[in-house]
Amino acid sequence: MYLFYTPDIxxxxxxxxxxxxxxxxxxxxQRGDEILLTDGQxxxxxxxxxxxxxxxxxxxxxxxxxxxxxxxxxLHIAIAPTKNIERIEWMVxxxxxxxxxxxxxxxxxxxxxxxxxxxxxQKIILSAAKQSLTPYLPKLNPMTDYNTLVTSAxxxxxxxxxxxxxxxxxxxxxxxxxxxxxVLIGPEGDFSEDEIRLAIDNGFVPVxxxxxxxxxxxxxxxxxxxxxLINEA
Length: 233
Known about the structure:
The protein is α/β, with parallel strands linked by helices. The chain is 32% helix and 24% strand.
């Protein structure tokens, strides 16, 4: 069954224009058909279509269910967007499918991209969540200055993945089950040495994601999958 996104279901029982068009014109749902909805906050609803209008499809709720999270920790990845925006869009899509909780685009010293379209990334998140039937939408933050994020981080475990040759631990060995986690992924030119020192001074542990040198977006997906896998084991 297809999943429809209805963030305002508590106050109105009508799909947005975009969702209505997909429901009525693309999927050809009719009056009396049952649909599956989510508010993106972990609640799913079974509903019945009462007015299959292609711009404002109305429905009545049959039942509601609170869905448990697939993991009992909180995963936040802060990443410097790549010059090629399609690569970071791919990363956002895949991390949403895997189960990330929060994404922060990061503005670093060597960042090649200093602006993003939040609306575009939010649409990708929504599409990926619906495709994977995920009732929880990850939080997307605006572009954030590196120093601001590092000095205000509150997660229980904090890591910075970089490519310098200094001693680093393996992320897979440092993830702690049930502990909130923040992983920093740098730009294509990596973090500066000053940025790494600032992170360490603020409780971040330098980590490696394996033997291969990874692209920025690949590193984020690997970090996301590693953290989720360990917490689901």
